[in-house]
Every structure is written in structure tokens, then in C-alpha cells.
Amino acid sequence: ALDDGALTTTFQPIVAIESAEIVAFDAGFEGPSHALLRRDDVALDVAERTGQKLRVLDHYHHLALRAAEDELTGAEQLVLRVSAEELLESAVRLMSLLYHRETARMTSANVLFLVDSEGLADHFPAVLPAWRSVGEMGFRSCVDLSPNMPLPLDYLRELRPDVLRVSGRLVRDVHRHQDEFEYLLMLSRFATRHDMRILAADCVDRRELIALRRAGVAYVQGGFVAPSLATMTRPELTLS
Q1: What integer pLDDT is reported at residue 233 of this predicted model?
Q2: pLDDT tens digits, residue range 66-101?
Q3: What is the SS3 assignment for 239?
Q4: Percent of the chain, pLDDT > 90?
Q5: Which terminus of the chain is less hemmed in, N or C, by CB atoms within 10 Å?
Q6: Is 179 exposed, middle or buried (0-12, 13-18, 19+ CB in 10 A)?
Q7: 43 CB contacts (<8 Å, ≥6 apart)?
Q8: pTM as predicted
Q9: What is the Cα–Cα distance from 65 to 70, expressed in whole angstroms?
Q10: Residue 124 in contact with residue 102, Cβ under 8 Å?
């Protein structure tokens, strides 16, 4: 897929629940359907098993930045997946890409790195110096809290990401499950206390959105809000 130029990017709007305004675009990627690489998590899994993960991420960053550099406006952000082990190296490469054109409007403040909690747990506390260096460069950070590998709260206090992302079982049918709702409520209070925000992905139902709002979640994305598309489309949004 890499050699044939068959890796493509997709963009899904991320919306502030209270204002119903687009605040960011989640840049995903996928390979050709005939190779069964239609989802970014599948493509990354295959890339990691074949020793191509860093090469795939690097190519994906190039594609996403090239597509977004003239599309983002103001304080909108581009969410880019990055692995914990290549965090600093990726940030340095992205710096050079961001400023390769004098007319480019994007800065490091327009980029939010999404790092999965499993990778962070595997590299903690060794990842802390790189994490802080990335913040000093002006990039923003988001920890993707995998349901399979939640990070201890003391790790999160050390990392101090800008955003905590929840998805999957923590969002799906949250209006039906009191335990998951109370966990999100606790996490939201923790995030507010430490100047973080909660992003809920995979929201597909109005009832889920209402429960997420009640739990204090700040940002949301998913099929109910807007689909993932090949371009950075800004649909008319009505969150109620």
C-alpha cells in the first residue's frame, strides 16, 4: 500500500458539546479495500507486525499535514496518531514539515498528538522527557485511554495531557450503564481539576450524547455527529 501510494487519509470533525462548534479534525488513515486495510487500527496492527509501523506513521503524517495545511482555520487542530516510542522524533519531523512553506498557516499549536495508553504504559516513565519536550515545542497532546489498558491516575498527573480520549465500551450505550457513566463522571472531574478535557469518540446515538454531556465530557466525535470523509468537510451541526 505504501509503495503503490494506496494509503489515504480520512478526516472526522471533533465538536465541542456545549457550543456545537468544530474544534478539531481527527486524521485517520486506511489502505486499499482489497488488502483488508480499510481501518487505521488494522493498518497499524499489520504495519507493526511487519516492522513497518514507523514508516506508515511517517507517511500518514505527511499525507495528513499536506491535506490540512490550507484547510484549518484559526485555533482548529489536527489530531495525529503517534506512537510513544517515536514521540520526540515525530515532533521534530513535523516541525520541519509545518514550516516547509512560507505561506503555511499551520503551527505546532494546530497539531494534537494522539498517543495510546498502552504504548505509554509500556514506556513509562522513560517517555516523560520526550513528552515534555513535545509540549515545549508548542504541540498539544492527547492520551487515548484504551479500555484494555487504562493508565493509573498518577501517570496522567505526570503526563498532564491537554485531552483524554475515551471510546469503545466507555461510550457505547453509556446511557444504559450506570457504572460506565459514573466512571466518566469521575474522569471528567479529575480532568477538570488538572486542566484537561475529555473527548468521547464513537458516539453514534443521541441518548449517548445526552449522557456524555451530563458526565461533563467536553468534546465528541462519531457517526452521530459527523462521518469520516476524505476531505475536511464542515457539515451543519445540531447537537441536542
Answers
A1: 87
A2: 999 888 988 999 999 998 988 999 999 999 888 877
A3: coil
A4: 62
A5: C
A6: exposed
A7: 1, 7, 29, 30, 31, 37, 56
A8: 0.91
A9: 9
A10: no
